[in-house]
Amino acid sequence: MPAEHRTSFSADSECRTQMRLGRRGIVSPEMARVAVRERLAPELVRDEVARGRMIIPANVHHRALDPMAIGLKARVKINANIGNSPTSSSLQEEVEKLTVSERWGADTVMDLSTGKRIDETREAILAAATVPIGTVPIYQALERVKQIEDLTAESLLEVIEHQARQGVDYMTIHAGVRLEHLPLCRHRVTGIVSRGGGVLARWMVRHMRENPLYERFDEILEICRRYDVSISLGDGLRPGSIADASDAAQFAELDTLGELTERAWARDVQVMIEGPGHVPIDQLEENVRRQQRVCREAPFYTLGPLVTDIAPGYDHITSAIGAAIVGWHGTSGSDRLPDRRARCGSRAR
Q: What is the mean pLDDT of residues 136-161?
């Protein structure tokens, strides 16, 4: 990665985010590189980053990164998910998955590794990756405890800072799942299908306390400011079936994500918003419009969406249909892979 594409910061920099630079009227090397890749004016990129409508996931420690952007003025982006498990895959295989993902056009890659050698795997991926690398920190936090109830706010923050130091560019943080939202899920057909959302729901019910990621969100923002980690606000209450699409639980969480977006922007932290999973075609446009309104046009990263619950070819075809439609309506990315999803353009998960 040519050095001219990365910003240099002094060791005592308090805030190292692209948003802070943009708000100061600075066109950073990362913004200049994005302008070339997207065929946009550098000043337009700067202004979009400054207002929060575009993000450049670019941890200051990810030296191999070739900066890219996610947002309304940029092309729709596709994410690929990789990662080992306690029973399969090796470090070498994960790096090969990264290579294949980049070769076939993935714009970002999430490392969702669980089990052994998580740190070694992530470090190898980051050393090789020219695309932004994302994680879900609660997955690694779970590997450090015997049961979900043993999770603590301190352990979650420790993992977030650890991954930030490693060079992770963006993290899915399920801070929008509130204790008060859980009763809204009682009558769902498929309940809570997000792993992160389910873990936090179980923790809250067991302790009868608020989501620690919500309570300690300001401390998470301080970590992100130091390393320029972009936050992907997770949709822990996304619908897991068409029957649950656009329900009260989904939209209650979205309202909280709008609040958290404002809090992140107040601290110059870059944010994108994870979007719903299973949503029928006739509700896709309204879901995009509502997110843009509630979250002030912060980039929308959808997990598919899947427009049917059952389809041939696993769910790759249905998620591709959903991703194409929400991209048309203004979504910035999408996520798709064996576990089903799509994000801020679309996410391949």
A: 97
Residues in the chain: 349
pLDDT above 80 for 343: no
208-211 contacts: CB < 8 A, separation 24 or more?
208/179, 209/179, 210/178, 210/179, 211/174, 211/175, 211/177, 211/178, 211/179
Distance, in Å, from the CA atom of 183 to the CA atom of 160, rounded to the nearest integer, reads 29
DSSP count for the chain of H helices, then E strands: 13, 11
Q: 136 phi and psi, to 5 degrees?
A: -120, 95
Residues 349 and 311: their CA atoms lie apart, in Å, by: 17
Please state, for a pLDDT cut of 70, what percent of the chain lies above it.
93
Query: CA 212, CA 226: separation in Å to the nearest integer?
Result: 21
Residue 150 in tokens:
């043993």
* Pairwise CA distance, residues 130 & 222, whole Å: 26
Of residues 344, 319, 324, 343, the one with CA closest to residue 332: 344
* Cβ-based neighbour number of residue 317 at 10 Å: 14
